[in-house]
Q: What sequence folds into this?
């Protein structure tokens, strides 16, 4: 591979085009959660939150909020590293998804707080959010102190899918982070990484919600529940790995039907308020998925909902392989169950998030400890399924992206 | 068997039924057809019960359920046993894409030929004429694979007294063949047939490049299938016509709209550039928001209904095309029935979220 040729194919959005790979590889890692990094991130946060453009981008605002000093200190407290010495693994190569604009920033965040040198490939599509964040980072980097620390530790790049840049960076990196899609992961894995290097992949996942019908019916703020559920689903076209696809309702048939009626009516109102627009092809997709599922299961029925924005599919029984029938932009399977244990045969390795309502953290924790489900990496209240954390998709990024030096 | 006999269609003079007569005739036959498929196809049966289909609730054709065409790519849907299948037609999907599979028995296949022939005759006359096929012969030679292209060529060849293929097997222009054919049939009306994209790519563009000039002012061209590729190259129907007239003097050109899932009941374009339903088919434009019926003049997703599919449940399908019903019974050409236009395909989705490239799981192509 000719380095000069590869470098020609790469657009450096942040960081100077390097001439020697040693410039990258000889950079020492930093300690995890260093003060320098925290100050750097919190300055980015401040500048972003002061930007007038941020109002248009709630996803950028959420990121900026996540990088606040107070939150960073909180993270440091929960990921206590005092007893051991942890530093970054070295050079991280991040491949971020093409259709979630702010995802690259979180990936970079994880790489920076763990003390690493980062090469982040951003989507080829020109998202406003991407340029807003990148310009802000650039401005903060004008500060001489930050420049001297971070200018050789932070590269944001863009290149075509078929470029050999992926192979080039893969051959150098200590950790490769691939933000999914199974096809992307399989494609990128054709480029080897060095023997000692590791990989963190975020593959296609399936997520669900569980709702206790009685608790919902008694809930005092159903409007908030609807907005929370909207944020879990329609905000990302129900196409994020965290978006629930099937809803398991707990209770008697009567209790559930009563709760469902109100739940979906409230959601319909929220959709109107948020002015959600369903893309026409999705109506066809939903109908196609539904009939395919009908042929496969034989006990499903479409609910009488007339609008195509919300498709409710009644399942007569629990189906183990219901994750085969994933759609997007508002296609919900619904099943009535009476105990969490009914989910055990269902939640395979592909399952990621459970959004819950009407359960206590305690009973969910007991259920997990008692039954050790095959899948499920996160159980969070409805409305918080998209919240990023350094433990994501079952990976503890703090430890996956760092190494521990043992001195005894 | 009794059931099948009931499905036999009467010969009706084409484009003569007004709305009321058409609806009565069409609904009655459609309901019989639905009955038949509900009983003969397990898959269709389960689909209909999943949407609570009840015959007694159907007041008009707009109430009939429809199934998306993509299902024919995902499932092998048939309403006859396999030993009765005489022909399996496939959509002309390119390599690697899922293809629709349509199973034809003798009855459906001959019904398709009969109706196709009647529809086309009503435009070009029923006497056989010399025919130029704008395609290559190898397209129809492969008998094992009955593609939509081959089916079209074979179907339309019914009108040929003799025929010539305008393209060589490498898709280059068969200049000598055409020259000779035109010389032999001087003064006669010539019928030309081909697929829109192939005509544009391998006939029009080649003629434009070459110094060869043909005089086809005495010919009728019928073409269909493949606007989606041309629309992406921004060649609309009127441009297409103007271009062809320019290179070879063709001035009688009829587009048609049809699908491999409903071969036979094609929708021919009249002298006023409108596509027409016949007594054997119908079109309903639906709003993607809730699948309600769009008003005439409003754009929406196209549902197609045809009385011909007996051996497979393709009588009421939701396409991925968008179009507009322009009117009914009052086209200036005098033909009764709905007339409409096609505006292209539904756009692919652009989704947020971290899942992989859209569309692969359901083989949309």
A:
């Amino acid at each position: 591979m000719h380095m000069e040729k590869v470098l020609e194919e790469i657009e450096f959005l942040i960081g100077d085009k390097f001439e020697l790979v040693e410039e990258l590889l000889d950079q020492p890692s930093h300690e995890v959660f260093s003060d320098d990094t925290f100050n750097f991130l919190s300055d980015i946060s401040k500048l972003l939150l002061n930007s007038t453009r941020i109002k248009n981008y709630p996803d950028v605002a959420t990121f900026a909020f996540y990088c606040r000093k107070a939150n960073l200190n909180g993270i440091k407290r929960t990921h206590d590293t005092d007893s051991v010495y942890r530093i970054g693994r070295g050079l991280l190569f991040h491949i971020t998804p093409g259709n979630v604009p702010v995802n690259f920033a979180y990936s970079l965040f994880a790489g920076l707080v763990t003390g690493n040198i980062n090469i982040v490939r951003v989507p080829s599509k020109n998202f406003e959010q991407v340029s807003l964040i990148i310009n802000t980072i650039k401005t903060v980097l004008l500060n001489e102190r930050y420049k001297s620390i971070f200018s050789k530790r932070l590269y944001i790049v863009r290149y075509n899918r078929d470029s050999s840049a992926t192979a080039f960076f893969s051959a150098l990196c200590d950790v490769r982070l691939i933000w999914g899609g199974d096809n992307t992961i399989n494609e990128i894995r054709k480029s080897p990484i060095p023997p000692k290097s590791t990989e963190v992949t975020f593959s296609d996942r399936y997520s669900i919600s569980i709702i206790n019908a009685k608790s919902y019916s008694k809930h005092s703020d159903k409007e908030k529940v609807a907005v929370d559920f909207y944020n879990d689903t329609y905000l990302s076209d129900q196409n994020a790995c965290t978006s629930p696809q099937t809803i398991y309702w707990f209770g008697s048939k009567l209790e559930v039907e009563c709760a469902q009626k109100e739940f979906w009516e409230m959601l319909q109102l929220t959709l109107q308020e948020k002015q959600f627009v369903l893309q026409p092809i999705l109506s066809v997709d939903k109908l196609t998925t539904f009939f395919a599922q009908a042929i496969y299961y034989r006990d499903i029925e479409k609910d009488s909902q007339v609008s195509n924005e919300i498709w409710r599919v009644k399942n007569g029984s629990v189906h183990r392989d219901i994750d085969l029938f994933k759609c997007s932009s508002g296609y919900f399977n619904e099943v009535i169950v009476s105990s969490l244990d009914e989910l055990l045969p269902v939640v395979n390795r592909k399952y990621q998030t459970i959004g819950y309502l009407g359960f206590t953290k305690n009973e969910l924790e007991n259920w997990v400890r008692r039954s050790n489900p095959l899948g499920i990496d996160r159980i969070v209240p409805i409305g918080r399924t998209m919240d990023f954390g350094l433990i994501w998709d079952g990976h503890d990024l703090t430890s996956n992206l760092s190494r521990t030096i043992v001195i005894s | 068997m009794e059931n099948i006999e009931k499905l036999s269609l009467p010969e009706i003079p084409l484009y003569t039924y007004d709305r009321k007569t058409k609806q009565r005739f069409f609904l009655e036959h459609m309901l019989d057809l639905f009955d038949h498929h509900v009983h003969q196809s397990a898959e269709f049966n389960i689909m209909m019960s999943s949407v609570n289909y009840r015959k007694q609730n159907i007041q008009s054709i707009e109430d009939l359920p429809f199934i998306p065409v993509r299902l024919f790519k995902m499932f092998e849907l048939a309403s006859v046993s396999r030993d009765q299948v005489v022909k399996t037609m496939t959509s002309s999907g390119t390599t690697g894409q899922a293809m629709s599979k349509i199973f034809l028995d003798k009855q459906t296949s001959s019904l398709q030929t009969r109706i196709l022939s009647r529809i086309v005759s009503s435009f070009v006359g029923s006497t056989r004429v010399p025919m130029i096929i704008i395609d290559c012969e190898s397209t129809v030679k492969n008998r094992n694979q009955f593609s939509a292209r081959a089916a079209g060529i074979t179907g339309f060849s019914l009108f040929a007294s003799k025929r010539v293929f305008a393209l060589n097997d490498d898709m280059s222009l068969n200049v000598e063949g055409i020259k000779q054919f035109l010389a032999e049939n001087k003064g006669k009306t010539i019928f030309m047939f081909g697929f829109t994209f192939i005509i544009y790519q391998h006939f029009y563009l080649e003629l434009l490049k070459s110094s060869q000039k043909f005089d086809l002012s005495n010919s009728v061209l019928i073409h269909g299938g493949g606007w989606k590729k041309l629309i992406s190259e921004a060649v609309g129907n009127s441009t297409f016509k103007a271009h062809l007239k320019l290179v070879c003097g063709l001035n009688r050109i009829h587009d048609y709209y049809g699908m491999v899932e409903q071969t036979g009941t094609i929708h021919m374009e009249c002298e006023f550039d409108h596509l027409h339903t016949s007594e054997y088919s119908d079109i309903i434009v639906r709003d993607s928001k809730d699948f309600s019926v769009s008003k005439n003049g409003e754009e929406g997703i196209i549902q197609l209904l045809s009385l011909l599919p007996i051996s497979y449940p393709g009588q009421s399908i939701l396409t991925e095309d968008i179009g507009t019903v322009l009117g009914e019974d009052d086209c200036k050409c005098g033909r009764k029935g709905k007339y409409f236009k096609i505006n292209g395909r539904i756009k692919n989705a652009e989704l947020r979220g971290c899942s992989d490239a859209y569309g692969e799981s359901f083989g949309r192509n």
The mean pLDDT of chain A is 94. Chain A touches chain B through 47 residues (CB under 8 Å). The CA atoms of residues 270 and 405 of chain A lie 51 Å apart.
